[in-house]
Amino acid sequence: MYCPFCHYADSRVIDTRSSEDGTSIRRRRECPKCKKRFTTTETASLGVVKRSGATEPFSREKIIAGVRKSCQGRPVSDDDLTVLAQQVEETIRLTGASQVGTEEIGRAILKPLRKLDQIAFLRFASVYSNFDSLDDFEKAIQSLRNESEN
DSSP state, 23? Predict the structure, then answer.
């Protein structure tokens, strides 16, 4: 890490702290040459590879916007959607990959959405999983029934 004051090629870490949301690390550093102190913030970037092959940064807001459509008319609050988006991001970051496909994000959404609201889950799954017939819906509904019985 270069010193921003004298541009010396090294620095010493004095203190390290995680942010409250756990997405970044704050480090307090000192330059051994000029003895000045400075702060750096480190974050792990997460890229999303779209079907077209284009890559863009991961966005919780896009998760919320996509799931919100499935939750229209359902008793799901904005706070519920924020928590769901956080759970999805944590699930994806646990894989350790720096880039994920949209398919992986869709799969990561299904589990917490299933717990949040079953109707919203069916709506989302019908689009994400490309339900082609009523049989697909019946299978998903039966799976939900089996899960609630257990």
Answer: S
Tokens of 110: 């299904």
Q: What is the pTM assigned to this prediction?
A: 0.67
Burial tier of 36 (Cβ tally within 10 Å: 0-12, 13-18, 19+): middle
3-state SS, residue 148: helix
Give tens-digit pLDDT for 7-55.
999 999 999 998 776 668 999 999 999 999 999 998 878 899 998 999 9
Percent helix, strand, coil in the chain, to 5, is 45, 20, 35
> Is 115 in contact with 80 (CB distance < 8 Å)?
no
Region 68-87: mean pLDDT is 92
Distance, in Å, from the CA atom of 122 to the CA atom of 140, rounded to the nearest integer, reads: 7
Confidence label for 63 from pLDDT (cuts 50, 70 and 90)? very high
Tell how strand 47-49 and strand 55-57 pair up: antiparallel
Query: What is the rounded CA–CA span in Å between residue 82 and residue 90?
Result: 12
